[in-house]
Amino acid sequence: MLEKVSIVLSTYNNEEYIRKCLDSCFIQDYEGLNVIVADDGSTDGTLEILRDIKNKQDNMQIISLTHGERGIARNTAIELAKKIRSQYIYIIDSDMILEKNLIKNCMDYFSRNRSVGALIIPEYGFSNYKNFYSKVKVFERNIINNSGEEVGRNSIEAARFWRIEAFNLSGGINADEVSFEEIQPTIRYMERGGKVKRAVFTRVYHDEKFVMLKNILMKKRYYFSVMDKTIQQEEKGLRKTLQRWYFFRTVLYTKSNLKQYLKHPLLTLGVLNMYLLLTIVGIIELIKIKVKRNI
Fold first, then answer.
1. Which of 56, 87, 103, 109, CA to CA, is 20 to 30 A from 36?
2. Using CA atoms, how far apart are residues 151 and 121, in angstroms rounded to an integer?
3. How far apart are CA 120 and CA 244, in angstroms?
4. Which residues of 33-53 are buried (b: 16+ CB within 10 A; e: fewer)?
5. What is the reported pLDDT for 6?
6. Which residues pair with 36 in a beta bridge?
7. How far apart are CA 73 and CA 235, in angstroms?
8. What is the pLDDT of residue 295?
9. CA separation for the pair 205, 207 (Å, rounded)
10. Cα first-last separation, the chain
11. Which residues of the chain carry a pLDDT beneath 70?
């Protein structure tokens, strides 16, 4: 009997991309597959699209929620996966497109490597937009994910394909943590002796969509403004955050990525500029938090 795998995702006002994402889930060649979507209070046509797809797919569940933080929606979907006794969960974003046979290949890997509790699925960035910072985000995504099977302790990548017992051991996603909450289960699991590998034999395509520098700064400013929740709730949270700060990520300095910088100097400068500005924004927001505490 095949072990049950549940793909879990949350979505919010994502009518333009959700069908492509789910189509890539349902073409997977794995009979024990289930798909759980938590809609986080969408106000566009997302929920109607989900219901239309559900009418054609018996192995799909929709959870309709009021709008809140992403972690709440994800945890709701994960809890349903546990309730239906899934042995594995694969946590994705609604703007991702799965490579063909991703599920089957990962399950084959797990069957051969019983000591591995979770897999990081390399994300290949793409965008249909050709403006400079859309290209920069794609370039950044691809250099961050340009690494081998072994996972360093200061990696920023989150394991997304989990044996359910390994995910439980990690402590799962803390919905009270709004920033960097995705990576925390991976960090905790590795600290507790769990083994995480990077699934270099497959990939998932991540649509970066339309990106402008000011949008990146605005989005990250919000995450930095609530970062103290993550820092306070995680053991040695400040140290772990600093270890994974932009310029401290060791993957940036691998030989293969150094070659990419030489091939794409303008995009490299774009990433450097983005990281410098984000560092400044992050420091300002963290100072604001400290000042508020002392008032």
1. 109
2. 11
3. 16
4. bbbbbbbbebeeebbebbeeb
5. 98
6. 8, 61
7. 24
8. 62
9. 7
10. 61
11. 1, 295
Structure tokens at 173: 């996603």
Pairing of β 88-93 and β 5-11: parallel
Residue 110's pLDDT is 98
How confident is the model over 217-230, as pLDDT tens digits? 999 999 888 888 88
* pLDDT per residue as tens digits for the range 266-288: 999 999 999 999 999 999 998 88
pTM for the whole thing? 0.93
Under 8 Å between Cβ of 32 and 4: yes
Q: How many CB atoms lie within 10 A of CB 286?
A: 17
* Angle between helix 255-263 and 265-294 (nearest 10): 110
Q: What is the pLDDT of residue 175?
A: 87
Q: Which of 261, 249, 234 is nearest to 151 (CA)?
A: 249
The residue written with tokens 């889930």 in the block is 25
Measured from the Cβ of residue 140, the count of other Cβ atoms closer than 10 Å reads 23
